[in-house]
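Margin note: ligand = S-adenosylmethionine.
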Amino acid sequence: MSLYYEAAAVLANSENAGGSLKSRIYKNNGLKTSPAQLFALISEASKWSLVLKDVIERCGLLAEEKKLTPTLALLLTHDLLLAKSGVAAHANHALKLAVLRHKARLSAEFTKARLRRGYATVDVLRQAVEQGELVGGDEPSKELYKHPRWVRVNTLQTSMEEQMATTFAGYEKASNFQELQRAPAASKRYFKDPHIPNLLALPPKVDLSKSEAYAKGAIILQDKASCFPAYLLDVGPDDGDAIDGCAAPGNKTTHLAAMVSQRNIHAKRQKVFAYERDKSRAVTLAKMVKRASADSVVVIKPGADFLAANPESEEFARVGAILLDPSCSGSGIIGRDDAVKMHLPVPAVDSAPAATGEKNKKRKRDRETSQASTTVSLRLDDVLSEETPVEGQLSERLTALSTFQLRILTHAMRFPKAKKISYSTCSVHFQENEGVVFRALASKIARARGWRILPRDRQVQGMKDWIRRGVLETEDIDVDIGLDQLQKEEVRNACIRCEKGTEEGTMGFFVAAFVRDVEFVSGYTLSYAGAAENMEEGEEEEDEDEEEWNGFSDGGETIVAAPMQQQAPDAPESRKKKRK
Ligand SMILES: C[S@@+](CC[C@H](N)C(=O)[O-])C[C@H]1O[C@@H](n2cnc3c(N)ncnc32)[C@H](O)[C@@H]1O
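Resulting structure:
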């Protein structure tokens, strides 16, 4: 019987205790039950929980059996009605008796619940449950559009053709994206993305985690929007080396490496330097790079701060392209589809007999607790998120984040041979997106080095075709960057956005690219002090970009050359003061 108590304990306090379902089970050495049995019970019961919650509530089980908590009732009812060998306990165990007493009612309610949902037999209902079709029921899905499972074919190891003939053999082609979104959640369908090469959309519950291609890194589960930065950067054989300034866990790094390798037909040696400040995330990055077979292209800088990388270093003399995907508010992130969600039955409020004193208080508290948490949600795996949402008050967070993002971006603009930069976030906030782009364009370093936005009509085809573009919140642009309305409109249209919960099936995302001409570079003195000489009169007063870079990195250790600036040089506050 420890099976049910231990399963209930695994599910208890899921929001505060942390850890994925697998880590809670497989890293717990104190369990009496086999971890596989525990995992199977929880994942199966969660799939059926929408139906079983309904059955238990209509049967009034919780009101009559005080020993049963909502979670225990759900787990036991699952085994009673659906497990081949029934409830796993000896015949006289109190919990087993508590559900057995209601077997006839529970079975009858189960039949009614099935028929109400329009399933003729238990087998047809079982198939629908397995396919993840049971969204809604009595609780309609809030999601208007299904978020597909996006799969990038890793061209460092394989090709789309090879994957179609192996991993996706037997999958049926959807004639359009809407058809794919309407397909049963676990059905074997696919749709080739028209914007990003080597990208497939599959229904959200298709499980590829056990496929050989996934295990060896031939396919990578990566949201469509997250593929935009490397694709937009469009690194060619003549672009030299590339840097990914904020790399872990490495989806964009490996995509960048794949693009570099695929397009390098002249087999010129091109490297991708991958910076990751956080040491533990750098370990994941290294694993991901190895698994994707990108280690011959990628040079990892573990625990190294990109802001401390010396642009003038010999090592970066050939860096022509830089991808920046810095930490952000994460406001565009969509809840993970592979979460295990358990819908719990709610005890009927009036069904408990009146009680007095302490008992009454306790019963009331129990009822309130169980009503407050009618679902339990747990991540299936401990997967390091691509994004790193930062906690705190929103407006303060946005100010701090956008200051940091601007610093990263203007630092990248210092690399002498760089002529392409992509800047992205998984945020939906103007301040972290177009706001940073406008401020970067206004920075002294951008003007000194001739950086400008990559306009829509010069973007790679898929990005040019993408309809969702940037937004303009003119009242928020407190930098006078000397652009007229038409030019601002060009910048807006050059910015690319994705919105979550739309018919495109992406997360919320933002990306823009900056370019400059090599001729422009060669016409200028490349040191920042030299560039300042080319400034128009009075400009020096407005920017202090030269103070941004204050150290250099040597194998991850930052050697600080000057005290860190407290405020970003382009922060609105400092600018406003100067204008006065
Ligand atoms: C949004 S995540 C990057 C996701 C990654 N591009 C991908 O697609 O998998 C931002 C990462 O940048 C790292 N980071 C933040 N600031 C950094 C800095 N100054 N130098 C290097 N890495 C930094 C964070 O630790 C985090 O892992």
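The chain has 25 helices and 17 strands.
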